[in-house]
Task: inverse folding
């Protein structure tokens, strides 16, 4: 059966060169990077090499990159670590209502600890206005955390302006940006975003699962959550996963070596949009200002899960909302106050450079077939 | 010191002429279940089963599995020693040292089923109790409300020393209550209903209705995981996964919306009855509880029952949801049940289902569809999964 993978915001296929490199790291360069001997030193060099790749890519110092187990852990260290070291300065955190669960659940935990968390809600198009942040940030605010791209809709938030607002409000709050969905899709430069902390993940960019990165500006102090043998300068102790780190590095290089990916994705997105607009009963939830990698739409009267499984039976893989919430209702669309029937029938398609126009045609004809076959709710 | 397990039968001791058959069933089950964990010698006498580990097998490995066998009233780990009062005293102090060091009051109970033993029960208590008082300075005797009770059983094979027994799963041995099939969707109720009937000695077959693409592989996997939990008590379960999409779609298309659920349930019953008969099951079990949803009113249930001739057991019919949840937590099915996947009962739910359907109108609505072929196909295309914990 033909297989069309359109769930790339959940995870991606690992690129060949990352697989090859990881194999080498597991079978040849398998030393412990903390060991003093040559084999250990070789492993350490390969980690430092990837640090440099990532640092160059986002324009920061090598010393500002920390490897973690992925986006979730990066977000947890960034938020809890900041709060632990800054709690004497205040009690308030500002974030949005549409963050990834690894941010929102951490915030709920902090609320239980007595912190005040303000959740900024986007409008029905998914837009968040800077004034909303301006109104929320005050003297008491110690952290502002915002995602760069929303994982369900592809909405891009104006994170470059946030540091200015924090400074304008004379707040000492740190700025954390969850860039997991933006990484290797739109430019991320530390000197533009001016964030203190930025989270990344490898498996959304054709790298392996289980590895991510956290940028922590050398100018700020964040408390670690784990304690151990001092690896990653004590921020994330535990023997580093050299194969995964090396795979992460290759995935970034692979992206850097490819050209025209964004334009290709943009074309695929426009093509799908156009085709969907021609179908009655389909409503597109992602505005045209969204990141083209993600297209969220609702098929009136057909539950997300049903259409998803129908498409799955044709070898087409998409998401209902985000893959992390396994069938629960989308809190992102809910926060945008999208009507409930559209939330229940939302489908998220997310592209990668491997997709083609042919895939889109196959998807659209399968959707049409599903709409005919599947009984309406 | 040899450690064994003493297992006491429950209700089956009362069952007169059937006693032997029940005991044999239970011993067979015990043998079968513990065999996965190692070698154990099993013998039975005086309404007690003695389990003795052979070679490297360990009594501690089988405590959980024993606690899930229906027909067992209580069980305890015990030390078995020679029938000599001096040895019994010393070994009691040694075997129960940890327990006796941590309590303030105790008493000794003796049971003498070997009447050839020279001392009578009160004398045994006195001897052992006196010795323990000397050995443990923290202890004093309290015969009415002790923190800990030492039990000495003088039996034909030896003297057994143990503390208070743990409660067994109760009920009667699997297989003694015949065979029945459980209709399972994936919710909280049906695994509990299955467990309750297994407790009454019923061996189980299971029937699940799948409606892809409205329901998914994960919904099926959920049912398999639920049944794996139930099978820790009930033993092997043969699961039939019945393809149900076409039937649901046709009901949706041809019958009045408000009668969708009732007609669907009647057809599920008919299919279940056919599978049950093929599998030599003599009843159908459901997890229905009166008034919980629209299809669980007296009128709806009587419409459902009318579709088949086999008896339908609804062990949860008079239970509150909270009580059902409590059991589902105990048998560890709750956390599996609450995973949010669509199942055959949640798709196409009508907005306003008829809560007091009249059989006459249900039958008229039903007659719009040619059932025989659809039902045959569903039965014949069922997939079978063998569930064993």
Result:
């Amino acid at each position: 059966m033909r297989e069309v993978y359109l769930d790339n915001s959940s995870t991606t296929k690992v690129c060949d060169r990352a697989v090859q490199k990881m194999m080498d790291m597991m079978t040849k360069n398998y030393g412990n990077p903390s060991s003093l001997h040559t084999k250990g030193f070789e492993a350490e060099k390969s980690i430092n090499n990837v640090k440099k790749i990532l640092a160059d890519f986002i324009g920061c110092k090598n010393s500002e990159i920390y490897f973690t187990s992925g986006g979730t852990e990066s977000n947890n260290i960034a938020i809890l670590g900041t709060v632990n070291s800054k709690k004497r300065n205040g009690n308030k955190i500002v974030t949005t209502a549409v963050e990834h669960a690894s941010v929102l659940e951490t915030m709920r935990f902090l609320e239980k600890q007595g912190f005040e968390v303000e959740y900024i809600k986007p409008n029905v198009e998914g837009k968040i206005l800077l004034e909303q942040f301006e109104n929320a940030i005050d003297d008491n605010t110690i952290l502002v955390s915002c995602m760069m791209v929303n994982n369900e809709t592809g909405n891009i938030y104006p994170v470059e302006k946030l540091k200015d607002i924090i400074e304008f409000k004379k707040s000492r709050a740190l700025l954390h940006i969850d860039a997991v969905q933006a990484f290797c899709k739109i430019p991320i430069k530390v000197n533009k975003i001016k964030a203190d902390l930025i989270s990344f993940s490898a498996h959304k960019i054709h790298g392996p699962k289980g590895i991510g990165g956290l940028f922590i500006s050398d100018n700020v102090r964040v408390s670690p959550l784990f304690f151990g043998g001092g690896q990653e300068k004590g921020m994330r102790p535990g023997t580093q996963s050299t194969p995964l780190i090396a795979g992460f590095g290759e995935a970034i290089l692979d992206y850097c070596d490819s050209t025209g990916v964004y334009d290709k994705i943009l074309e695929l997105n426009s093509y799908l949009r156009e085709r969907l607009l021609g179908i009655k009963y389909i409503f597109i939830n992602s505005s045209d200002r969204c990141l083209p990698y993600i297209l969220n739409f609702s098929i009136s009267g057909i539950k997300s899960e049903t259409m998803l499984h129908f498409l799955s039976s044709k070898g087409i893989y998409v998401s209902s909302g985000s893959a992390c919430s396994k069938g629960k209702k989308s809190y992102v669309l809910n926060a945008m106050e999208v009507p409930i029937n559209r939330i229940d029938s939302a489908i998220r398609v997310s592209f990668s450079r491997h997709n083609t126009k042919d895939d889109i045609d196959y998807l659209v004809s399968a959707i049409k077939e599903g709409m005919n076959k599947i009984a309406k709710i | 010191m040899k450690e064994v397990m003493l297992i006491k039968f429950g209700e089956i001791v009362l069952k007169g002429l059937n006693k032997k058959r029940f005991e044999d069933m239970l011993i067979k089950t015990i043998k079968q279940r513990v065999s996965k964990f190692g070698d154990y010698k099993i013998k039975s006498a005086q309404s007690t089963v003695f389990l003795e580990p052979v070679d490297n097998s360990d009594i501690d490995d089988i405590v959980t599995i024993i606690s899930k066998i229906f027909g067992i009233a209580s069980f305890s780990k015990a030390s078995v020693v020679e029938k000599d009062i001096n040895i019994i005293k010393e070994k009691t102090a040694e075997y129960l040292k940890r327990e006796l060091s941590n309590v303030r009051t105790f008493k000794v109970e003796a049971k003498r089923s070997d009447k050839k033993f020279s001392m009578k029960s009160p004398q045994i208590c006195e001897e052992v109790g006196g010795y323990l008082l000397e050995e443990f300075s923290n202890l004093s005797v309290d015969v009415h409300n002790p923190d800990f009770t030492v039990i000495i059983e003088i039996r034909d094979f030896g003297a057994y020393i143990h503390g208070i027994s743990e409660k067994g799963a109760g009920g009667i041995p699997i297989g003694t209550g015949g065979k029945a099939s459980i209709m399972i969707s994936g919710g909280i109720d049906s695994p509990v209903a299955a467990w309750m009937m297994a407790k009454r000695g019923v061996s189980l077959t299971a029937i699940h209705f799948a409606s892809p693409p409205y329901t998914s592989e994960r919904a099926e996997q959920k049912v398999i995981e639920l049944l794996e939990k139930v099978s820790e008590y009930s033993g092997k379960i043969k699961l039939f996964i019945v393809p149900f999409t076409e039937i649901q779609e046709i009901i949706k298309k041809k019958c009045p919306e408000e009668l969708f659920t009732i007609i669907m349930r009647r057809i599920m019953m008919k299919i279940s009855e056919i599978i049950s008969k093929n599998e030599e099951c003599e009843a159908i079990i459901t997890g229905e509880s009166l008034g919980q949803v629209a299809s669980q009113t007296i009128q709806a249930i009587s419409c459902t029952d009318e579709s088949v001739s086999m008896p339908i057991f609804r062990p949860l019919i008079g239970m509150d949801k909270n009580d059902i949840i409590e059991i589902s937590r105990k048998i560890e099915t709750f956390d599996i049940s609450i995973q949010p996947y669509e199942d055959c009962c949640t798709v196409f739910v009508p907005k306003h289902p008829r809560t007091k359907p009249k059989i006459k109108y249900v039958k008229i609505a039903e007659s719009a569809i040619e059932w025989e072929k659809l039902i045959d196909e569903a039965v014949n295309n069922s997939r079978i999964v063998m569930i064993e914990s």
Q: What stands out?
A: The mean pLDDT of chain B is 92. The first helix of chain B runs from residue 19 to 34.
